[in-house]
Amino acid sequence: MINEALGLSILVSLTATVFVALFGIALGYLFARGSFRGKDWIEAALTLPMILPPVVTGYYLVVLTGRHGWIGGFFYEWTGFSFVFSWQGAALAAFVVAYPIMMRFAKSAFLGVNRELEHVSATLGKNRLQTFFRITLPLAKNALWGGAILSFARAIGEFGATLMIAGNIPGETQTMPLAIYDALVSSRDDLAVTLVLILTVISIAIVAVSTRLTRGKMTL
Amino acid sequence: MRTILTCFLLLGILFGCTSGESEIRVSAASSLTDVLAEVTVLFESRFPQYKIKANFAGSNVLRQQIEAGAPVDVFVPASDKTMNGMLEQGLLLSAPVPLFSNRLAVVVPGGAKTRPERFSDLTHPDVKRIAIGGPGVPVRFYTEEALKRLNLWKSLTPKYVYASGVRQVVDYVARGEADAGFVYLTDTIVFRNRLVTAWTVPDSLHSPIVYPGAALRDAKNVEGALSFLGFLESAPAREIFKRHGFEIK
Predict the structure, then answer these.
(1) Which one of A85, A182, A185 has the shortest CB-CB distance to B177?
(2) pLDDT per residue over A204-216, tens digit each?
(3) Which of residues 141-160 of B touch A (CB under 8 A)?
(4) What long-range pairs does B38-41 form, CB within 8 A, spacing at least 24?
(5) Which of A85, A168, A185 sits opposite B61 (nearest CB)?
(6) How far is CA A17 from CA A9, A116, B219, in A?
(7) What is the pTM of this model?
(8) How far, rounded to the nearest angstrom, does the alpha carbon of residue A174 sit from its chain's CA centroid?
């Protein structure tokens, strides 16, 4: 039971973090370097899942991706796949609550990169994509890792939205926080304490690593 | 000086709320949410000196809150087991009184194409997910009893989705995410617009679903607690409970 929940939590959070990193870095770069109409408002809207109660995020997800949801309905008719009650649903919930963290870390990381160096790269005949991968990304690397690790920590702790979309099925969608909730409400205190300690240690380790990576250069 | 005064004023607002009428804090099973709201209105109109503060959750969660010292005067869980455990722990002021009872029903989503009609249909591959109460949720206990008696509990296990309370079972089924669910008969009345009742589970398959009521040993408002409990057994209150589908023995 402990192994199942822990394994599932890691699978869900890692999957979520891969997408979080891609999506968050792209958005962070867009908001750091781009200039377009309504930029501040779009950024604020995209930050929402970090601030909204997870139940609200969960509600949006259910309305959108449920078997009879706006998007989920089509998808289900088409493929027979539904995010609801699946580990992919748990990963989706974790992704949605965690990507704003990555986005904001990435934005401030890119803002911290000296633009002179990017200009030099351009004068040496490199295009924007080459400059991004060979100059900007390596210079922002530490802060980006820090953001990804913190996003992973947020993902592994996700509860509210997960419960709404993925449900609570041991071995299938029951991640650590859900297993802890189950153990607590069914008065299995020993199990609850064990799970709580494991999750606490993991979380402290994650945050410590993230702090080390971003030491002295972090502004969220 | 002004700042300090403001702070005291804020503290006063935060902590010094009670005035005039006295509060009765009631912790009740979530299946009672709607019916108790109605009973409360009637009670407060008859006893204007009291004000009901109700807290609804799964019975086991409420029990843990009380064990942890939550200020509660009256407790109405959805299971005698929970209540008897608390009696043994010495948490009650007096012996619990059985107030009313409920039944179990199988519900399906409104627009379902194929609809299970009897227990054996639940094993059909079209029924992919069955929502039931999670560990410690009272409705789970009765569901498990009934399905075990029918020898279906084990074979249906891969289909279960565990809800944090009976109202979440309702939600999963109403949204069509689960193909069937086990809820109380009273929930099918509250949510008749969102759920279809497939069948009512025979009483003989599970132990009686009784809602006991009791005042708590640490009640701050003993007098209020006892008058509210008395009111729950009165004819006008019983009328409301009956209308919501509860049975009174």
Answers:
(1) A85
(2) 998 898 888 777 5
(3) 160
(4) B38/B240, B38/B244, B39/B231, B39/B232, B39/B237, B39/B240, B39/B241
(5) A185
(6) 12, 31, 49
(7) 0.79
(8) 18
